[in-house]
Each structure stands twice: as structure tokens, then as C-alpha cells.
Amino acid sequence: MKKIFIIAIMATMAIAANAQKYALIDMEYILKNVPAYERAQEQLSQVSKRWQAEVEALNTEASTMYKNYQNEVVFLSQEQKQAKQESIMQKEKEAADLKKKYFGPEGELFKKRESLMSPIQDEIYNAVKEISELRGYQLVLDRASDSGIIFASPKIDISNEVLQKLGY
């Protein structure tokens, strides 16, 4: 955290020394005011809940199978015990695999988020780029990212201008 803060201060001093123009945006504020972002978030939430319910159903099924196994274990032969244990482990593996498929690092939720959010982020990036080129900004920082900005004058915040450029 200290390194990031020091780098931010050094970058700010270097920018000031070269008299370059810079601006700030508040990405959280911008995204809150973009209806497509809210719709995408709602879609992701619904899909996530549905997929989580599928995973939980498999886990519940495995848990029920295990409880039934514990109740019947004294009456089962060694082969039956082995078969039940394997089926329980298979069900648990199914649940884990499904969870990884949906929620893993390269899972379906990641892909869905990417497909829904990329167009919105690209649109915002292009608006910021156009404004920067028009006004001659060499650097635009996101104040919402907690990158060590302690104070910033509202005069250099172009968030509302970005929203206007986007048509909101």
C-alpha cells in the first residue's frame, strides 16, 4: 500500500513538474448513472443465484446420501458400503465440478460478466479518451479506485462530462 501511495505521489509530482494536464473520474459514480450497467448487474445476480441453487442442490443431495448411508451402514455388506461411498463421492465431485464450471476463475460467471461489462467499459473508455484528446489531458485517474488520492479538486473531475458524452 505504501509503495502505491509513494508511486502516486511521485507520479503527481512528475506531472506537476512537466505542467501536464490531468483529470479525475469517479468510475463508481459513472457506472451508477449508466442504466446498462445496472441491467447487467441484475442479470449477473440472477444468473449467479440460479447457478448457486444448482450447486447447493447437488451438495444437499450428497449430504442426504451420506446421512442415509450412516443410518444403513450396519446393515450393508462391504461391497454395498463401497458402492454407496463411491456414489456419495461422485455426487460431491459433481457438485465441486459444477461450482468450478460456474464460479471458477475462467468459469461461466466470469465469461458472462466479461461479455456484459466489456461493451460498457469500452464505451466509457472511448468517451474518456475523446474528452482527454479534446482537452489535452495526458493522464486521467480514477478516484474510486483508492489509489492513494488523498485530495482532489472537484474542478478537475470530469465524471459528469463523461456521462454527458455517453448521453446520460
Outline the structure in words.
The chain is mostly helical. The protein has one domain (2-166). The chain is built from 6 helices and 2 strands. It has a two-stranded parallel sheet. The mean pLDDT is 87.
Tell me about the largest β-sheet: 2 strands, parallel
**Total beta-strand segments:** 2
| Count of folded domains | 1
Element order: H for helix, E for strand? HEHHHHEH
DSSP helical segment count: 6
Residue-averaged pLDDT: 87
Kindly estimate the percentage of residues that lie in beta strands according to DSSP.
5-15%
Instruction: Return residue spans where pLDDT drops below 50 for at least 5 consecutive residues.
Output: none
Q: Given the helix and strand composition, which structural class is it?
A: mainly alpha
Please state how the strands of the largest beta sheet are arranged side by side. 1-2
Notable characteristics:
168 residues, single chain, mainly alpha, 2 strands, 73% helix
Outline:
The protein has 168 residues and is mainly alpha-helical. 73% of the residues lie in helices and 7% in strands. It has one domain (2-166).
List the helices and strands and how they pair.
Elements: H1 2-17, E1 21-25, H2 27-32, H3 35-72, H4 78-103, H5 108-135, E2 137-142, H6 159-166
Parallel strand pairs: 1-2
